[in-house]
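hiii, so i know i said id send this last week but things got crazy w the move. better late than never?? heres the sequnce for the chain we talked about at the cafe, plus the structure i predicted for it. fair warning i was half asleep when i ran it
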Amino acid sequence: MHSFDAVFSGKGLMEIPKPFAIPMTGEVNKEVFEHWKNYDISLYLRTNWDKLQKDLYGKIRVSVGEQDNFYLNSAVHLLDSEMKKLNTGFVFEYYPGDHFTVFSPEYRKAAERFLVAKYLQWQKENKKGF
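okay and structure toks below
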């Protein structure tokens, strides 16, 4: 948690990051919790989708290993669920593997297919310059 506190929390005494929670009790620091909302991508997308939709609709691909060492797959599932409610057109893909082994040939091929499809779509929509 110290690394998360260092990145996402405000500074406390002697410029030391404020802890999100007390490790022994699990009690959450409500001030720090509110500060962490500044980094909540799901909250940002949900709050600002009306402004972002034109630029982002269908252009985001999120992929993760289902055995992620840092449990990021759980966060990705939550984001996937929220983005479906907004009809973002985002692509969410789940693969076998953990944080360090997910980069398989199947994973790379899917990423390449997504990028090629988006590039061809862009070319079609922007023929004027070709």
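btw Residues 12 and 18 are 5 Å apart (CA to CA). thought thatd interest u
miss u guys!!
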